[in-house]
Structure formats: C-alpha cells, structure tokens
Amino acid sequence: MPNPHIFRVKKLHPHQHLWEPLEADPTFVLRPFFGGKTIYLGGKLMLFFCARRPPMNGIWACTDQTRHAALRATLPELTPFPDHPKWLHVPDTHDRFEHVATRLVELARRRDPRLGVEPVAKHRAKRRKM
What we know:
The chain is of the alpha+beta class. It has a domain at 14-50. 18% of the residues lie in helices and 25% in strands. The chain has helices at 16-19, 68-74, 97-109, and strands at residues 29-33, 36-41, 44-50, 58-61, 79-81, 84-91. A six-stranded antiparallel beta sheet has the order 1-2-3-4-6-5, covered by helices on one side. The longest helix is centred in the last third of the chain and has 13 residues, at 97-109.
C-alpha cells in the first residue's frame, strides 16, 4: 500500500519559464501536444515547446510557409524542420535559443500577424446506428 504521506511531484517543463509571461493573457491556453506543450492565444496556435523528442526539442513558431521569409528576416535562427516544413524551429541546443524563444514569446504576446495558425478541428468518429 502506498504511503499517504508521500506526494508525487509533478515534473516541470524545462521551457516553462519562457511561456510564463503569456499566462496573464485571458485567452492563454496551454495544451499537451506530441510530448511538448502548445500555446494558444486568442484561439490561435502560436508556439510549441518540445523537450522530450530529440531532434525536435526546442521552440516552434506556428506559422504558414507564406510568412516564413518575413519571420526569418527578424529571427534568422529559425529554420524549417526537414520532416515538418510548415512551422519554423530553433533547437534548444542552439547558442541563441533563449534569445529567440524570448523574442517569439514577445511577438506572440503582441499578436504579431506572422505568428499563429487556426487549429484544425478534431474529427469525431460517427457512430453507426444498428
């Protein structure tokens, strides 16, 4: 029988400090996503923080390919990921990771039009009537 006086400590995400400035926004939503955390602001998917799936670890700017050049002009460290070219990524091993992540969070907070995608609606399986 487990000891009732022992509490499980929830492991904190290593990049949590980066998104904390967004938590005061009334539209802020944090959701799990493929071993990481997604940040929604104003109903849009803005950022994805990953720390469990190398080489995907780091921060992802949720955007579309038409806005890549404009965003990379501001943050040239961002690159398309080979398997997921839709969003831009900077690994958490990059020398300027903290700078880029902090800047992306600031852009998200200001609702920069280069960031954010509408979430894809979930498809629910239809039940068959028998």
